[in-house]
Each structure stands twice: as C-alpha cells, then as structure tokens.
Amino acid sequence: MALATNAPILSASDGAAYATDNPAGPSAVLLVCEHASKHIPDSLDNLDLDARTANSHVAWDPGAVAVAGHLSSSLDAALIRATVSRLVYDCNRPPEAPGAMPAKSEIFPIAGNQNIGAEEKAARVNEIYVPFTNAIRDEISGRTAAGRATVLVTIHSFTPIYFGEKRKVELGILHDIDATFADAMLAIPSTMEVQRNQPYGPDDGVTHTLKLHALPNGLLNVMIEIRNDLIATEGDQKKVADELSDMISQALDAVQLPTPTTEATHA
User: Fold this and answer.
1) DSSP readout, 147-162?
2) Residue 104, strand partner residues
3) N or C end of the chain: smaller count of CB under 10 Å?
C-alpha cells in the first residue's frame, strides 16, 4: 500500500517517534534502545506483513526494551527508546543505508518496503529518524552544558538462529574504534557466553548510534547484544538486566570518565 501524497507517517494516535524514560536519572549512563518497538503506524497498513513477520525479531528486538527498562531503574539512568518498528525506519542506520527501510530482512520479504517512493522515504526519515536522533543529541548536549559526563550504552537483542545457523554467543559486547568501555566490560566475568563484536560488528553497520553520537563527542560507549531466548520471560529479563547492571557499574568504576567540554555537541 503506497502512502498518499503528502500524508504524514505518524498520526496523533501513534504519538512521537521516541520516548524518554527516567529523564532526570543522575547516572552518567545514557541508555538507548533503537529497536524497542514493533509498532507500525496505521498509515502504512502494517507494511502488508503477515502476523508472524510483524511480530518476529525482524520487526523489533524482543526483550531488549524490558532489559533496558530494568537497567534504567537499577542504574537510575535516562533511557531514550524508539516507539516505531525498525521495519518502518531502523534508527540504528543512517538514511542512505539500505537497511534503514529494508525491502528484505533476513529471510523475510517486507512487502510494504518494496519500491518506496522518494517522498515517503523522506517522510520516514523526517518523522522518525530525525526526532529520535535529535533527542539523543539534545540529551548529550544538555549534559555537557551542565558539566555531566555521559557514557552511551545501547541495548539490543538478537535471534538464536539466523539464516538457519545456531548462534553460540549469548552476550555480545560491541564497539567501534573506541573499545575503552567495552574492554572494561569484557574484563568482568559473566554467567553468559560473551564475545566481542558478535554476532555483529562495525563492518555490519550496527554501530551507527555510537559513531554518530559517542565518537565525535569523545564519549565512552558500548553496544550490548543479548540473545533473545535468554530474555523471553519477565524473570529472565530481570535476571539478565541485574547481571548487566553489575557489569556496567564495575566498568564505570574501572574507567576514567572524560571531563565534559562545553564545545558544541556533534551530530
């Protein structure tokens, strides 16, 4: 179903493209969950997806936002989360990336993303990606102006089977060119099978948020990937979040937080 000319993607019933939880949290940690929601705005007619695809891991990161919520509480940290499915716009991809509005995700064809017109692409970028990434930028800028340090921590989950292959890794600690905080976390023992830059890494384009907001501003950062079968229930989400909270807290104690500067925030 093609979007009507000049029609908005988001209606009043959809709300904003992002939400901020615990905005006054005093922690240096700023949590981000780009794939928190499987919501598809009514204007896009469910992207012509069947129920299985619309509820699958290709539409969002199952369990990730629940873990992020627990971390927000335990660390007393602000959380910025997307409220629209990554199939509509993947907020961890720049507009020029093919995966930003994927025509196919893993083995799933995304019917409503076939041959998207330039006007609709621009509307998705302007209504979803821009407000989301501006929210992160503004939060970092405000902290910097107030003399607060920021450690950017993004929370994701991944499927245990991908293209028919089982994944052994249970917890991925990902980073781009700055591995400082990732190294500190990787030095901490875990009950899970932990690997660096797995099941994805920078070459797969998954560190966009880190590259856009953390690296130019000299912020410590890490991307956390959790195998979603380990966080399928409320109890397991809390259990994994508690372990991650301990790991993040220990890593914070192990590193020296950069002194914020009052120069203009990038991105």
Assistant:
1) T---EEEEEEEE-SEE
2) 109
3) N
At 100-139, the pLDDT tens digits run: 999 988 778 899 999 999 999 999 999 999 999 999 999 9
Per DSSP, 206 falls in state T
Closest C-alpha among 174, 169, 172 to residue 152 = 174
Q: Are 151 and 181 in contact (CB under 8 A)?
A: yes
Helix 64-75 to helix 234-254 angle, to the nearest 10 degrees? 50
Q: Which residues contact 5 (CB under 8 A, 6 or more apart)?
A: 119
- Whole-model pTM: value is 0.95
Q: Which domains does the chain have, with CATH numbers?
A: 18-254 (3.40.630.40)
Distance in angstroms (rounded) separating the CA atoms of residues 94 and 98:
9
* Residues 125 and 90 sit within 8 Å (Cβ to Cβ): no
Residue 22, amino acid: N
